[in-house]
Amino acid sequence: MSSNLAKNSILTLLANLSFSLTNWLLLVVIAKVYDTAFLGQFVLALSILSPVFLLSSLKLRTLIVVDVDTEYSIEQYLGTRLLLSSIGLILSILLGISFFNNVSFSLLLLIGVYKWCDSWCELFYAYYHRTGRFDTATFSQCGRSVLSMSVILIIALISDSAILMVSGWVATTVVFSIVDTVIFTNLRRRDESVSTNWISLLSVQYAVRTPLRILKKYYTLSISLVVGALFVYIPNFVIEKYSGIEAAGEFAAVSYFLIAGGLLIHSVSQASSPRLAVFAKQENWKGLITLTFKMCLIGAAIGVSGVIVALVAGKFFLELFYNPEIALLSEELTWVLVAAAIRYIYIFIGTAMNALKQFHTQTYIYAVGTLCVLVACLFWVPEYGSLGAAKAMVFATCMECILFGFFFWRNVKIKEKAHD
């Protein structure tokens, strides 16, 4: 079993690494080839759209993996995603044009389409993981990333239009949302002898009743995701308010290293999630705690390595990958990676709590962390600028780490006593 976990972790790591590289390349190309103002617009659009789509996601990717008793069918999950993602697309665009006049409608629409298609693909990745087809998920994600990076670089070389380059990035995601739909349909027909009735997803049962039932039961998962994501996006909004949209774009380029590293951690997290779910179902608390502790050590090692690199060569790498203006934020990079190191530890505790279906507790923890980063940013950004935002992230991650450790240990001990 340990060899399968290692193999699946490597495959998921490869898939998420390719995804992270694609999004990072997009930021690099905008910063180097186009202008900082467009980078700020792009970052602000992502900061608006991402929380809304997370709110509409209901964390279905996790639910599919941990639903070992098949509480809901795949069609029910697909119908839920179809409805809520469509609502999320409409709401996010309305929110953007109503409150953020400095972000163009075309950019909001493009990123909205990207988010919709990405959320559709995500559901198929979860199905592949649940059925043990990590290689299929990796093949699809890596293929999409390679095509996206190629399109980004080609358009950047032949055109001075940043919107055209973003359009190419979105188009590849649209193509792969169709490709993954075909792959999923064929696999299900071959392995389960089941033909997916796509027309039925538009029925009242799948398009309304089931989504509402799942929403009522698991809405706190979406809230948990949103408040967790706002941890990253709130500093962008506060910096934009006090220092301008260009400063927000520059800080987002630096803070993306926290997100990129988080994708590496989530790779191992996703691979270990099915095994943790089995431990929880079997009430094997020792196995659950041992695996969680090992994963936390891996997260700590990756985080500390990032901090060391930032201290030694942070300015060099920022200038190499972005531009001299962003390279001036090397101190911010160090603080951001300190926050990342702390977060990489408790991400695995959150995965274990998912296996225990302790979703509500995580919502409260992330809410506390989000409140901490908001308050700290409001106090420190006006005086210290982006450096204040970076330190606010460290403060908030410390609070979250303490709370995750406390409630996980408490919940496991309660279950152990109930079992005895």
UniProtKB/TrEMBL annotation:
<feature type="transmembrane region" description="Helical">
    <location>
        <begin position="251"/>
        <end position="268"/>
    </location>
</feature>
<keyword id="KW-0812">Transmembrane</keyword>
<keyword id="KW-1133">Transmembrane helix</keyword>
<protein>
    <recommendedName>
        <fullName>Polysaccharide biosynthesis protein</fullName>
    </recommendedName>
</protein>
<keyword id="KW-1003">Cell membrane</keyword>
<feature type="transmembrane region" description="Helical">
    <location>
        <begin position="12"/>
        <end position="31"/>
    </location>
</feature>
<feature type="transmembrane region" description="Helical">
    <location>
        <begin position="37"/>
        <end position="58"/>
    </location>
</feature>
<feature type="transmembrane region" description="Helical">
    <location>
        <begin position="288"/>
        <end position="313"/>
    </location>
</feature>
<feature type="transmembrane region" description="Helical">
    <location>
        <begin position="218"/>
        <end position="239"/>
    </location>
</feature>
<feature type="transmembrane region" description="Helical">
    <location>
        <begin position="363"/>
        <end position="381"/>
    </location>
</feature>
<keyword id="KW-0472">Membrane</keyword>
<dbReference type="InterPro" id="IPR050833">
    <property type="entry name" value="Poly_Biosynth_Transport"/>
</dbReference>
<feature type="transmembrane region" description="Helical">
    <location>
        <begin position="78"/>
        <end position="99"/>
    </location>
</feature>
<feature type="transmembrane region" description="Helical">
    <location>
        <begin position="333"/>
        <end position="356"/>
    </location>
</feature>
<feature type="transmembrane region" description="Helical">
    <location>
        <begin position="387"/>
        <end position="409"/>
    </location>
</feature>
